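re: that complex we talked abt at group meeting.

here r the seqs, copy pasted straight from the sheet so there may be weird spacing, ignore it
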Amino acid sequence: MVDEKEGGPGSGEKDSAELGLRSWQNANRERRAITHLRSFGPPKILNSAAALSYGSPMARVQLSDNPRARPGDEHLSARTPPGTVYVDEGVFQQEMEKLFFRHWLNVGHVSQIPNPGDFITRGIGTESVLFVRGGDGVVRGFYNVCRHRGTRIVTDDHGEKLRSIVCPYHAWTYSTEGKLVGAPHTDALEDFDKEDFGLYPVNTDTWGGFIWANLDPRAEPLKEAIAPLIARTERWNVAGLRLGAKHVYEVNANWKILAENYSECYHCAPIHPGLNRVTPYFTGDNDAWMTRGKGVSTVNGGFQTFAGDYTSMTVSGYTKRPPLKGMTEDDRKRIYYWVVFPNMFFSMHPDYLMIHRDWPLSASHSKIECEWYFDPEAMARPDFDPSDAVDMWDEINRQDWAVCERTQLGVGSRAWSRGRYSDQEPLVYDLDKAYTERMAGASSLAVKRPARKRAVTSRKRRAGRR
Ligand code: FES
Ligand SMILES: [Fe+2]
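got the structure back, here u go
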């Protein structure tokens, strides 16, 4: 296991002192729970500094000023999804069909395959997809499946300067644009035209310098699907950034547990004392929702604000790198965190972009890629060193993966039933609701309220019988 992202943005809107008090009461309850857990939890995750940070006077004041919920917000009366959606392999297969084979996925960056013939392969569920830059410079995606007898063609996860793509079994040969250009001993075949046997195409597009793919040939265009992300990032030159570092982690947790973890900072005080010092969990606001508009959007999230004069999420909390081009005064005081459903976490800092790709491998196992992107001008400087950002996030990532693995262990318990969202978790609810609606058939997250009324009715009925 390893890496991850910070506990995303908080959310909600400002409101009553009553709610602030309720937040504080919740925080105190959590603090007691942390103290209890600390007695047998690994000190790296739960330490005394973390436990104390929830109760600081600053936190108390800010909590009452910045509650993350308004009375009536749906998450205040909702229950979390049932444990089966995190552990059941049948649900996992449905998720592949309904989500990962039907939505745009962030699969890589154009700079990984800069030249004609360069390629990467990506596993998407049980599928393998080949992305190759053609001789014409265009990046295309293909199922990694030979049209002859179905053999997986390429086993390397990347390569460069292929002149053609040759199946190792019987040497059917494809151009880098996917056309079948060689098929020994097929001249005598009846009703056979090589034109009809090119590699199966996969919907592929680029935005922000990233390669995106959608296995659904009828999918809406990428730029419509991720329009909320494009709108929020157009003032920055995302496509002009360059990869500075990458970590890959394997985590024994369901992909949704990782996404839910990204979607709240409720856990930041106990799990990430270092992060919580730089951007306290109660700061910021949310600006994107998946389920609060028409239909179901692919993006939710918001921002958190630096405490004091901190300038970035680094080991020190400061950066020597200049702000990225297009950063406003407000942007320089914030870190933006957006989930792009289903597999990307997009975290824009004043001086770098970090992204995560959340790849489900099974119901209980995921692979996470974490990449850091910087301005190429900053990277060209002789003193460029991304380690202050990378080391900070590597630690945060590992803290998150560790607690996500513990969550995976618990949600499969025969005892655990659906939980409740704190007022700090509206984005988790929003994500879960979007997931539930997309899966169409999973049970509702709403709390069933009529129980009390039914009890009264049945008492009356019993009284009537007497
Ligand atoms: S299966 Fe690919 S050439 Fe025969
Ligand atoms: Fe976190």
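couple things i noticed - The chain is about 30% helix and 20% strand. Residues 105-206 form a domain with the Rieske Iron-sulfur Protein fold (CATH 2.102.10.10).
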